[in-house]
Structures
1.
Amino acid sequence: MSIMKTGVKIAGLSALIAGTALPLMAQEAAAEAAPAVNNAFIFNTLLFLIGGFLVFWMAAGFAMLEAGLVRAKNVTMQLTKNIALFAIACIMYWLVGYNLMYPGDGWTIAGYIGAFSTASIQGDIAADAAYATGSDFFFQLMFCATTASIVSGTLAERIKLWPFLIFTVVLTGFLYPIEASWQWGGGWLSEAGFSDFAGSTLVHATGGFAALAGAIILGPRLGKFSKDGRVNPMPGSNLALATLGTFVLWLGWFGFNGASQLALGTEADANAVAIIFANTNMAAAGGAVSAMILTQVLYKKIDLTMLLNGALAGLVAITAGPLDPTLFGALWIGAIGGIIAVVVVPMLDKLKIDDVVGAIPVHLVAGFWGTMAVPFYTEGANFGTQLLGFVAIGVFMLVASSVVWFVLKATMGLRPSEEDEVLGLDKAELGLEAYPEFKA
């Protein structure tokens, strides 16, 4: 009886093994027949998407920073402008901006102006595609919106809502894409050898130039400068919000710079992204510490607003070349950015240029420094070409922005009435206060 049972067990086991082997063989055959998975495509696309939503979060950072640095009677206006400008940028970059910035072979004027057409992210995936088109559109859109956010802070508290939003339409749909195409779209600056990894000039200084033109044409806030030349401080409403906004921007910058590597499909790309993250963080730290020390030396007290802007200036400075420097290199590049943030503010005051949040020192001047610092570490970059690129973009943005601002001033006016400005734009234009229980 035991022999019979053993035979039955052996026969059953043999059948089980045979039954298991058949599905495994079928799976192996199916795997051999299936097309190979393009892992580089997947990781590159993922880098764009993660970087994109980190840069998207910078929109919240700008909103919080500006809300904290304006007076209480204008907080709602700044929040409204920031969410509205982001929405407008999304639509305008789709309508014309993306294809204008990346024209491929479709240049209207070769190397200078691309083709005007609506962006499409649909269609089949090409066999040799490096990433999903939709991920690239999403990522690049965030840079476009960032440029407009820079302008918002500088002109705070004395510009009407609709003229600002119309300027945003022009900036995000046309001006930013045109100048960015000169480098990132394969235009004439790219051919000349200009180097701007993630946009110290193409994004930050561009926004700074547009803001500078607007600030000059708009003029300062009422009461900012006395007739005898004194500068009257106008403290912000909430330094806790401003500090939160700075930390949010610092976080978003890892996506801003890190995803600008544009690839994560190899070990070398992954290593590059890690280096960029570390250098970006070190530059911010250098900018914050240098600004903190300098304000202590100059004013005998640490100025928190300068410390915040010092960190941001360090971030802007490293953005043009975050991959090649050592950690020490990132530290001193960022530290000089922090010094710029402190030194340039009183210079603007002497010129009677009213920059509410310090965006011109942080984004324009520190952007210039970061652009010119690239040749210290990046092989093939030279100071002459870097200066050429900065000046060309600066002239284009100053002239084009000024034309738009002057047209808006002549047709619909830029400033509210003196009565409305004194009352505050929250009540005068929106009828909604951020802090209804407090006086401005």
2.
Amino acid sequence: MTFLADSISRIKPSSTIAASQRARDLAAQGRDVIALSTGEPDFDTPENIQLAAIRALTTGKTRYTPTNGIPELREAIVQKFRRENSLEFTPQQVIVSNGGKHVIANAFLATLNPGDEVLIPAPYWVSYPELVALCGATPIVVETSAKDGLKLTPEALERHITARTKWVVLNSPSNPSGAAYTHGELSALAEVLVKHEHVWILTDDIYEHLVYDDFVFATIGQVEPRLLPRTLTMNGVSKAYAMTGWRVGYGAGPTQLVKAMDVIQGQVTSGINSVAQWAAVEALTGPQDFLGTRRQAFQERRDAVVGLLNSCEGIRCATPEGAFYVFPSCEGTYGKVSRSGKPIEDDESFALELLSEEGVAVVHGSAFGTPGHFRISYAASMTSLVGACERIRRFCANLEKGNAK
């Protein structure tokens, strides 16, 4: 008889963390590894934000904080939503949590019961279905297609909504694909959701500031205000502000929902790190000019990676609208054999052999619910990216050499 809860058997370890750990293990053995498996900017946290944290330390702002966040940060979040998204919230409708994942977990724990369903378009961030399963509810994966840009269509959304549907999750720009929904695409989805008043919307906007070319970011509550009474808008400072380790995420939504999330957070973690909250205040209220500079750097990396990958035999890579990921297809390598004699049968064997033979760590697409692909994070130096793509090109070129054992 096991003493572990049944919920443990319903969830799996994070595939992205596992891929990164495999890379670390190889590097510890002395292998030359280029790890492109982690979604983390390689830039430092801006200096003004670092200094704000130091000021918090030296002025005694190291005590317990309100569970839902210090008033100054919640007010800064209210102003951010008004300034950047034309969304109106009160500080009571805002909660600050230990990263965006914590916001989502709080929302699901506060609302999901066994038998409830959550619609999750694939490819999806690996934690969405696991958090749903942890709550005893059922994740319903909605497949997307390359012809639709790996984005949820109104028709697919309508087809999957049932009386049991509690939430639909939208992530734009997407992790892992980088696909982002236009204002028009969100409007078309909103037309469906307006008709189904029992369905709530969780929109994960964590990559909001990382959109490229002439793409204009929009969030669904901004596009269709009638959905705001049942929309939780999640965001944070980790990606755009290079503050992944600070662990500051936030959500804004209906007061009743946010209060319920606050109750759960109060019993599990209480308020988050006080110093990190003051740093986040500076991030949201301080100079924003560096965002454009870093966005341009990411766009240059994206363009270079897409071009290099499309020169690899058996690889097809679309150009994403945002985030810092590409999600190329590796199906053109299936049926071939690596130099070690191992067959490439699927995206997981492709990723494992690529790491083993060339020391490039990526995450296989099946981990995100979309087989036949792999994810590369281009939040790395251009030197590392070019070197990694050259290794991938070499790996693909050598696949037909050798015989299966």
3.
Amino acid sequence: MNILIKSATIIDPKSEFHNSTQDLLVENGYITNIGSNLKNPKNYKEIQLDNLHISQGWFDSSVCFGEPGYEERETIENGLKTAAASGFTTVVMNSNTNPVIDTNADIAFVLSKSANHAVTLLPLGALTRSSKGEDLAELFDMKMAGAVAFYDYKTAVTNPNMMKIALQYACNFNGLVCSFPQENKITRNGVMNEQVTSTKLGLKGNPALAEELQVARDLFLLEYAGGKLHIPTISTSKSVALIKEAKARKLDVTCSVAIHNLCFTDEALNDFDTNFKVIPPLRTQNDVEALIEGLKDGTIDMVTSDHAPIDIEEKKVEFDHANFGTIGLESAFGALQTVLSTKKAIEVLTRGKSRFGIEPNPIKIGHELNATLFNPNNTYTFSENDIKSRSKNAIFKGSSLKGKVYGIIANNKMYLNP
């Protein structure tokens, strides 16, 4: 791939061209020159777009694509196209397929389906067989096949001894263990945050305590067993405080937050819109503020769209019976810019890669170009026309967002939105 990118503002603190507007010459996927008013003697395709900005490629640590088994929700092929259109050059795919991804053959299948794409797909293997929490899955074999971590998606590991053994075993091959932060005996059948709003609406509550107990338990287990722990999608102020304290004690722990938990509170459920039924649930304004602050000070390591396509049949039902989850890739950047500055949004969209084995790739001469192209200033109302996923369960539908993604360049391939 040979192209000349014209007048792009580079947002990359790791590059000497950070905050400057430059031309980038890319030959065979590698940056061969950066400068002002570069010539194009070989007649390469030129990319010139309104208010063009470029950064290191964005990273999402939690997406669901459905395939195999739930192709009606989303396929790997269309999921990767959606990721590319949304600005992501690397995504981590969850194991909640049918069958659950819990063997080396399953990992090999997913990698084969995602080969030769601009977006790099990193597969997660289930932590326990069929994500049932009863027996460890084939962790080492999956690691050798290409799994980057192990996670029973949105399924709490209720047996503390199982979590302890997983951490100890994964130490042998530097494996990353993920644990969903929820104590099921406290949550029970809760469908939203337990607070004033849940009482007013007459809906069963999922208290912050359920998350915080599990976070505290897993941090104690990590301290005892050693290993590497990642806690996906925390949602409460106390969880932020617990993880901050654990990091101060040098425990090897990271965490993420779903973008919608930064943008909405539980009051958004007043209309019983099932698109707002997510897990962990939307919390209070105090929690939102603590999550944003935790993201800014580095306690929270990364953001995620927590992209979870769900069939319309599982959303257009009574709130109690609706499935949890929202799609989020398409709205991720625009939503994030409603709560963070552009530079901070880009920072949190590009950090976290190394935790999953991907080293950062600064925009420098001689480096392979792995980048996202965008306009940070475009404002619009997110609608169904902006959705590229097969499923349409979008929490941000009708929201005012800021920022337009032009596309990505990665793996010596380019994807630009029409």
